[in-house]
Amino acid sequence: MVPLSWYIGLSAIVFTIGMIGFIIRRNIIIMLMSIELMLNAVNISLVAFSHYLQDFRGQIFVIFIITVAAAEAAIGLAILVALFKNKSAVHTDEIMEMKG
Amino acid sequence: MNVTLPFPDLAPAMPEIIIISAATVMLLLELLFKNKGVLAFIGVGIAALAMYFVPMSIGDTFGGMFKSDLYSIYFKFIFLLNLMLTIMISLQYMKREKAEYGEYYSLLLFATAGMMLMASAKDLIVLYLGLELMALSTYILAGIKKHDIRSNEAAIKYLLLGGFSSAILLYGISLLYGLTGTTDIYAISVYLKFQGSSLAVVMAMMFITAAFCFKIAAAPFHMWAPDVYEGAPTSVTAFMSIGPKAAGFAVIGRMFYVAFQSMQADWVPVLIGISVITMAVGNILAITQTNIKRMLAYSSIAHAGYMLIGIIAGTSEGLSAMITYLLIYTFMNMGAFAIIILLDRGDEIKDYEGLAKSRPLVAGLMLVFMFSLTGIPPTAGFIGKFNLFLAAVQAGYAWLVVIAVMFSAVSAYYYLRIVMNMYMKDMKEEASISPSPTLALAIVITVMMVFAIGIMPSLVIG
Asked: What is the reported pTM?
């Protein structure tokens, strides 16, 4: 039996990797992937807590998070395609029409 | 084995059900009508119908996950008002911008339904789903001018930072769930009252606070707001500057007054810090702006700072003053955006030079909204600020009110700069306007409410 703290530790590590990735990477697709990583870190901890507490709410929540994450990825990529048609760039440094 | 689930009582959720079914049907109707204006009128009608059902919708339903009480009813009223005014001001504008898609109205309805779910959420799962319904719809709305690169850029920035903030929110929620063993906001409150807080609970609270500060555009989580407000179509900016902000405040109010009630000593200092930084950043950075939508973005950041004072007060007077302020803010901000839409060229502050000479009425109306945003009597803005600051003084935060009033004086500089441009500068060219009946109606409603609340505050207070 793997203790709960291991799962929580794994979740915290994956979340931190996602967070750092979001902050330091400048490619929009990688930034979207980092958000996905953060959401999945949350899923790990929710499932671990759910099993530990013997309560199903956490697992139900995970299903919802996966669904919403899929919708979010679809919208994000759609916006990115629209952006790419107007200006061939996926780098945040190149997408700076507005500043100040 | 036969398991029968009790059919939920639908009455408390009736307004949401109406809005969501109407939005779904409108997606199909979009194919039938060539003139998308029809959908706009349907949208306003649906919002009015939902508003009629709102006061009758008190009660808990869906296994206690959905709670409609007086608090959520006030917020739903603001959301529906925001929806109606947005549809009114966008009818002509979207045609002019060549972005007249039927989905636009449907998405506005979906976003509003998301906000209403957030205000009514009694469970963190419902809260998250409402939040995402609102957020995903507004991402698309921000980018609805799909051939305009600035609109695309606004949408992608909003999506990236919005997704990041909801991931942070979820991490906070997962910690809270692990610690308390429940996702019910009221059960969390009971647990924390009897078990006391721990470092981990404080950490979870910080994650949740940070995520909602993103939504209400409070500093230091405000960076997305100016770019998104500037790039998005003006009608969507008007919608976003009120709806998601009000929804964020609805949730902050419920989380801090219910779930974290026993931890007041932990969250008050945090919110005071955020509020002061927000007022400073919003008001000071607004001074240097040359684009009026960007300026109003910083102004809306500053207003979020004022509204946080209502939460900090920690009393029911503070909470009701915040809701009143949000209602007043809806009218004055929507009015200002309606004037921007009315002008054919009104995005830059220098476009307003000499407006009083070519369009005295338009300039006069803009003057009213700018005075109201500054908080000068007899406009509603004054009543809102007075009420809010009074509640904070009564709760013993006089020094915080002094800071807020000082920043409020700073705000006069950039609001009145527009007035100065309109009345004291020479006209460069005749300003052209494109009026429409619905836009005129929206302006009449907002300006009337700004004066009515300013002269008879008893309309909204008490």
From this structure: 0.94
